[in-house]
Design brief:
heterodimer; A: about 475 residues; alpha+beta; FAD/NAD(P)-binding domain; Alpha-Beta Plaits; 6-stranded mixed sheet; globular; B: about 120 residues; Jelly Rolls; 4-stranded antiparallel sheet; 3 helices; about 35% strand
Chain lengths: ~475, ~120
């Protein structure tokens, strides 16, 4: 009854495998390079080798990753808030990938939404702890004695168990020779591959090297985020933040939203917005609403970074023998980047094994997954734009807070606002579903009532609960 | 159960799903062991033990029938609920996930047939 390692999946889809006579298919002895050993690269390698094994295809996979995720701080970090969404935790379990407790720093059971007009805890609709707060690397600087393991290291272990080889080398150039991509390492050695999968994220110079390939792949649009770690004690972090992720919808100019995530003895602060700078970071950290949520003994930032995130889908994140996955290609707007890495990685792996490695195969069988994410992001932009407008008005902030608070206080009440906030901040549902929820007559009726109550309270005729 | 444990902890003897209940999710065992039990006219019949990585309750995802068996924690166990909606949404995008589930269900039918054949042989 085990989910993993089903070896006879071959019989289920071997008839779908592309014509083996084609040059643009993987054959016994084919070599695949994966540039980047984060979640996208490891998921891709794992599924590629699993599917290849299922159809008795013998291929070699090299993962190029110069960093070791055993190191603390930037040397072993992939610069990410480190949340595995509720939907991804479930899907991984259904795939037979169960995150061990050693990797999960804190299980998140609720989200607390903070505004200047109050705070409300949104409990998990399932009543279960299905969101994982974790470190992609081995934690921030000063975290050498951490009892937890790296998430990226764990996934890389899954890939190597399937047969992938880790090459601790930086790729300095990509060349197209004899109809194949060649990777040139820092040592000057060149290696030819039948497929190069780019999982380097957007914080690497590697993407610029792809512009000269025949596929002419361009880097995506990006924006900067801010991630900062504070150190406290496990007891204090638990006392102040509990097992909750704290989300802030504040009226600081250019700040979309921010979050504080408890992780063992550390807290991670993540900020998203336009043109993030030190002034905005200080404004956030000085805000009285934020200060109430900080452990009293938190020491100033022990590790911080301003990584880029992908803000715009590539039109063609693939070419003959080249495919881009995860952040390098298409990812979800602001949320669930690891989930998008998983989805694109598996779609690319199944395309490569079953349909081939041509641009045409990726267009037909990989691009629909990317396009689905990109189309959903377009809806997400509308939702975040609307949230920005609502956030700007104290009356609507009161209305949102009142509606969510009343729903949480009444176990049997329909959870229109709670579901919307939960899905929006956890990344558990597509933006399309969030929009459908916001257009539900029950939601619209309730928000109107609560906005009216917000107006009354702002006129001194009532109180926000 | 350590920190960072996802899902829900069930005490020894606690029912995770009950035979006859309507279900809208499946479960994956995260740690410990659970027992699959079926109520019959002659009392409860043990069907199987499931351990870490095993799943159960998947029939509720694909049909609207009630649960066909009770699953009970055998010692402290932790199980993660996988929602029908989340699973079906993912299967729509990635039908290969359904192949995994169908394969397990196929193994169960095979085991059931073998069990019935064994009982038939015993009677004869």
């Amino acid at each position: 009854m085990r989910l993993s390692s089903q070896s006879s999946v071959a019989d289920s889809f071997s008839s779908l495998v592309a014509d083996e006579g084609s040059d643009l298919t993987l054959k016994d002895g084919s070599r695949v390079a994966v540039v980047g050993g984060g979640p996208a690269g490891s998921f891709f390698s794992y599924f590629l080798l699993k599917m290849a094994e299922a159809i008795d295809l013998d291929i070699d996979v090299d993962i190029y990753e110069p960093r070791s995720f055993k190191h603390c701080g930037p040397a072993g970090c992939n610069h990410c808030g480190g949340i595995v969404s509720e939907s991804l935790v479930q899907i991984l379990a259904a795939e037979g990938i169960n995150l061990p407790p050693e990797v999960v720093q804190r299980e998140i059971e609720s989200y607390v939404v903070h505004m200047d007009v109050g705070s409300v805890a949104i409990q998990s609709p399932s009543g279960e702890q299905r969101i994982a707060a974790l470190y992609r690397g081995n934690g921030p600087r000063e975290g050498a004695e951490s009892p937890w393991d790296s998430f990226d290291g764990y996934l890389q272990g899954m890939a190597t168990e399937k047969g992938a080889r880790i090459v601790r080398q930086l790729i300095t150039d990509v060349q197209w020779r004899e109809d194949c991509p060649w990777l040139i390492g820092a040592d000057g050695e060149a290696e030819a591959y039948d497929l190069v999968t780019v999982a380097s994220g957007v914080n690497s110079n590697f993407l610029r090297l792809l512009e000269d390939l025949p596929a002419g792949i361009k880097p995506p649009k990006t924006t900067r985020t801010y991630i900062c770690e504070f150190r406290s004690t496990p007891d204090e972090v638990l006392r102040v933040l509990g097992n909750s992720m704290h989300v802030f919808l504040l009226t600081i100019p250019r700040l979309e939203f921010a979050a504080i995530i408890p992780k063992g003895e550390f807290v991670t602060v993540v900020m998203l917005g336009d043109e993030l700078d030190q002034e905005m970071v200080h404004a956030f950290l000085r805000d009285p609403v934020v200060r109430k949520c900080f452990p009293t003994d938190a020491t100033p930032c022990v590790c911080s970074c301003s990584p880029l995130i992908n803000m715009g889908a590539r039109k063609r994140p693939f070419g003959d023998r080249v495919v881009l996955i995860g952040d390098s290609g298409v990812t979800r707007l602001y949320k669930d980047g690891i989930g998008a890495a998983f989805r694109t990685a598996k779609a690319a792996a199944s395309t490569a094994v079953i349909q081939g490695v041509s641009a045409d195969a990726f267009e037909k069988h990989y691009w629909p997954t990317c396009r689905g994410i990109a189309n959903d992001n377009a809806i997400g932009k509308v939702i975040f734009g609307t949230t920005g407008l609502l956030k700007a008005s104290k009356i609507s902030r009161r209305g949102i807070m009142r509606m969510a608070s009343r729903e949480q206080a009444s176990p049997d009440a329909p959870r229109h606002m709670s579901s919307l906030l939960w899905n929006m901040f956890t990344g558990s549902a597509p933006y399309k579903e969030i929009l459908q929820g916001a257009l539900h007559p029950g939601f619209l009726g309730n928000i109107m009532v609560n906005l009216a109550a917000g107006i009354r309270s702002s006129n001194g005729k009532g109180k926000v609960p | 159960m350590g920190k960072g444990a996802l899902g829900k902890v069930y005490a020894d003897g606690e029912d995770i799903v009950r035979q006859g209940d309507v279900g809208d999710c499946m479960f994956v065992v995260q740690s410990g062991r659970v027992e699959v039990i079926q109520a019959t006219d002659s009392g409860e019949q043990h069907l199987a033990f499931l351990e870490t990585g095993d799943f159960f309750g998947e029939m509720a995802v694909f049909e609207k029938e009630t649960r066909s068996a009770t699953v009970r924690a055998s010692g402290e166990a932790r199980a993660l609920k996988v929602d029908k909606k989340t699973l079906l949404r993912r299967i729509k995008e990635d039908p290969l996930l359904a192949v995994n589930l169908l394969q397990t269900m196929s193994h169960r039918i095979r085991d059931l047939n073998a069990g019935m054949a064994g009982r038939g042989a015993d009677r004869s």
